[in-house]
Amino acid sequence: MADERRFSYGGQAVIEGVMIRGRQAVVTAVRRPNGEIVTRVMKPSGFASGRLRRMPLVRGVIILIEAMVLGIQSLLYSANVAVEEELEEIPQKVLWVTLGLGVALAIILFLVIPLVLTNLLREYLPGSLAFNAVEGAIRIIIFIGYLKVVSFMPDIRRVFTYHGAEHKTVNAYEAGQPLEVEAVRPYGTAHVRCGTSFLFLVLLLAIIVFTFVGRQELWIMVLSRILLIPVIMALGYEVIHFGARHSRNWLMKVVLAPGLFLQALTTGEPDDRQLEVAITAMKEALAADAGTEKS
């Protein structure tokens, strides 16, 4: 058990369910319209589980790519279960096309648009630092605005409550509590390793990293933003990784506080039925890691 607890369990919310990534298995638990909880257990990619996953800086990029791929797979599975359609294996080509479109849209929305808007104000900004500060502020405003807008959608709000269920379950597990609804319910819906915190930290780090590029021709700055994405992701992961292990340090509390605060937009208070789904996913992930079947 001591060795098991050193692994950082986590996952994401899906449609009417939760995905938990364990050491040996990726478990997606979804509640069907008839109330039954069904699960799917997948083996994580060997590429994402090998030595690269433990290598500083490199691991951040590897883990994020894996999280996006697993997230799409789990979302498609949960969508099928939620409408009780026949479950079929999604072709890898479809997954990669979907992932590519998602990344492209994110680059346009959170990198290209803020840069273009800031470039329109170029003559009013005295230097590179001011330019990148304004660009970063626009980027953060767009990010928070995006989260605020999608949080008004009923279906997304429900996914966000499952996000809260996932966090509560992980928090309870890491506190050594039994994985039962009554024990999990009191825990908070925020977690230091949340993807929301990671993305917000990446936006802040981008201001610093892009400052070294300086003010160049627009096409050079656009290219630099895209090429430096892996660098910023790697740095962001290392900060989150360090902060999660030193969460009592006052400096880490300050660094992580904005991301934890922002999770109020991406998590909701789950009901007991949603907690049951998250607990089911966590129990099966733990059972797979222990080499036993769920009782």
Please name the defining characteristics of this protein.
globular, 7% strand, alpha+beta, 295 residues
What does this molecule look like?
The protein is built from twelve helices and four strands, in the order αββββααααααααααα. The chain is an alpha+beta fold. The chain has one domain (2-290). The protein has a four-stranded antiparallel beta sheet with strand order 1-2-3-4. A hairpin with a 5-residue loop joins β3 and β4 (37-42). α3 (58-82) crosses α4 (92-120), α6 crosses α12 (272-290) and α8 (195-211) packs across α11 (250-266). The model is unreliable at 1-5 (pLDDT under 50).
Record the SSE blueprint:
Layout: H1 2-5, E1 10-14, E2 17-21, E3 26-31, E4 37-42, H2 46-49, H3 58-82, H4 92-120, H5 128-150, H6 154-174, H7 181-184, H8 195-211, H9 218-227, H10 229-245, H11 250-266, H12 272-290
Antiparallel strand pairs: 1-2, 2-3, 3-4
Helix pairs in contact: 3-4, 3-10, 4-5, 4-9, 5-8, 6-12, 8-10, 8-11
